[in-house]
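Budget justification, computational time. The allocation requested in the original proposal was used primarily to generate structure tokens for proteins on the priority list. As evidence of use, we reproduce two of the resulting records. The first is shown immediately below.
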Amino acid sequence: MLDMLPQQLVNGLTLGSTYALIALGLTLVFGVLLIPNFAHGELYMLGAFSTYALVGAGVNFWLAVVIATVIVIALGIVLDRVVFQPLDHSSSLSLMIAALAASIILQQTATIIWGSEPRTTPSPIPGVLRMAGFSIAYFQIFVIALTLAAWGGVWLVLNRSRLGLAIRAVAQNKGAAQLMGIELRDVRLATFAIGALLGGLGGAILSANFPVYPTMGINPVLKAFVVLVLGGIGNLWGAILGGLLLGIVEVMVAGYISSQLQDVGTFLILVLVLLLRPQGLFGRVVLER
């Protein structure tokens, strides 16, 4: 069975990179605005469907990815304005219920427009790299590289720009940030736009790797929340490591134990982390704001 290990590790890294890409946007919105945005999975779904529709209309795949991502950014900003901003001073439970309601509405809207049958988008990067002990599609290598590039881009924005300084200030103490003259509305707009960008970009790119259907965002966003707990909420590097770790664990459980226990293993890890290290494997203990 050990001869399968290199291939299982590669499969786990590939799966984990998709979880990490989705979790990046989710952890940013949750870490800064404290919004449990379950509708993030639908932003991912809409990015995939928009790309599918544009490619079907004859648009080049990469141009379709750009257009679809812009569409999802606009939808994400509208989602915040319509659903979350009116509940800005409400409880976390109200925000969670609103997010679930928005998620269902977006799924039903997609079903009305595109139907419930799975769709596929041709891969823009064909071919497979074959090495001793494992093989990996060139497109999957691109997805892993894109995930790392997305992390690097968000890190640069947060740590090397005035906008990032403002976002980090709001994340640490919203009241103090406002007293220092930081416009909370602008920070909120930018945070949701970046989160939607990451969700839409993930869906647009992964539409060439996974079937596209209205409920395709449910499982990834649930796994992304697990990644948040594993990596530590608001921790970008933790989102990457947590996503990769989760992907490897899932593939190992499916490959060496049983594919039926794949999700059981995932949520068992979640429970163990919550019991033993609630701040996440890579997070720090913070005082409640």
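The second record produced under the same allocation is shown here.
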Amino acid sequence: MTITIALPSKGRLKEKALEVFAQAGFRIELPKDSRSYRGSVKGRPEIEIAFLSASEIARELIAGKIALGVTGEDLARESVADPGTFLDFACRLGFGGADVVVAVPDAWADVTTMADLDDVAAGFRRSHHRPLRVATKYWQLTQNWFADHGIALYRIAESLGATEGAPAAGTADIIVDITSTGSTLKANHLRILRDGIILRSQANLIASKKIRLSREDRAVLKGVCRQVAEAVAAN
């Protein structure tokens, strides 16, 4: 029997994930064929490694097709309405940090909190003859966060890139997006609301709650989680 652990397939997330697993005592052997996305762990034939995109890892965990995966918390929580039913966030890994935030134009000087934004949304249709528009790729997180703050009078304008430029381009009024330094927001004359941080995201080791495992495989999964958590805590 084997369990499959999915790691990011490229970039800094891949490098840092391999580093953390090495610190935890798992020597990941990369595929010999550059076109292959399958690896292994030296001396651990019961563990298979799959290299996938970060967003695909979240989907595969939710579908119960892989046992464990390393991906961004933002992607995991955005991929399903009730992440706690599908995913066990086993360990925060200490890299890939960024915040999902609500940001408004600098010119909106009187809007500094979500309560202020609620007031703006309530009067927006009357003054502009349309609802407040929110540019984002985070539909799920935005809807949950706005509902938690009682804001219902808005419309999401889907953004698949360059979200920070949406207000200046006239395709949205405010944005919900991810930021690590805030510099891109500032360059686009946007400001994060004081209580507008939806999620402080970072890479997580996440277990699927939907996969069916034997007792032996479940023990392997728990062992991997424990060793990785201990390695992260030690660093």
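A brief technical remark on that second record: Residues 215-234 form the longest helix (20 residues).
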